[in-house]
Amino acid sequence: MTKESILTGLETAWAGCEIVYFDETDSTNRQARILAMEGAAHGTLVLADRQTAGRGRRGRGWISPAGEGIFMTLIVRPQARPSQAAKMSLSLALAVARAIRRETGLDARIKWPNDIVIGGRKVCGLLLEMDATAQKINSIAAGVGINVHQTRFDEEIAHTASSLDLLAGRRISRNALVRAFLAEFERAQTLCDEEMMCEYRGLSATIGQRVQVIALDGTYTGTAKGITQSGSLLVEDDAGALREVLAADVSVRGIMDYV
User: Fold this and answer.
1) Which whole-number Å values give the CA distances from 71 to 5, 22, 47, 178, in the listed order?
2) What is the pTM of this model?
3) Mean pLDDT rounded to a whole number for the chain
């Protein structure tokens, strides 16, 4: 995986307009946020072969060994208000899922709000970090970590994680997958909200599943019934009440498996 190999054949207008590549860095999200503050252009991609301090949602670590995964962060400068940032997370998940489907033929789906799963196994996590005022978003660091060539996982995640190579039964090109992601993300930004949410729902691995919702004020179980136009999850709890779940507030887990 190299900057030159990714640029060869890249057909986007702005996504990946500039690629900053590291053999090793602490975190592509951290580097992207620094570059964004220094004025890096909309669509700049920060990419690393290895991260020493990769991060996932809720402060979790993201294991990032050399030569095995894709660890990248896209700098986005949307003309949007902070209240609209949740939609960016959903469109990012949609782009990654479509890119994986396109390059591997695997049935990649989205575990709400933005984990990518195949056959109930997590293959990708996303982390968005925003620099904004009350009125406008200055920049978003849209981080993506994809398990591509990994064949072994730490014991604590071995039962929930997998890689594209293991699931496809062949070696997947990281360069081609990065190019596909950039093209799909750029495409996703051209969709109106209704189109984007329709496609997102169509790839949902959560709708119709039994889930456990873990919130600050308590835990309950129920069935995921749908996703609102604003991106919230609708869960009918076991008492029959329909609850709207916001991604920032809770953790949602499948009861029967990871999804």
Assistant:
1) 16, 10, 6, 10
2) 0.91
3) 90
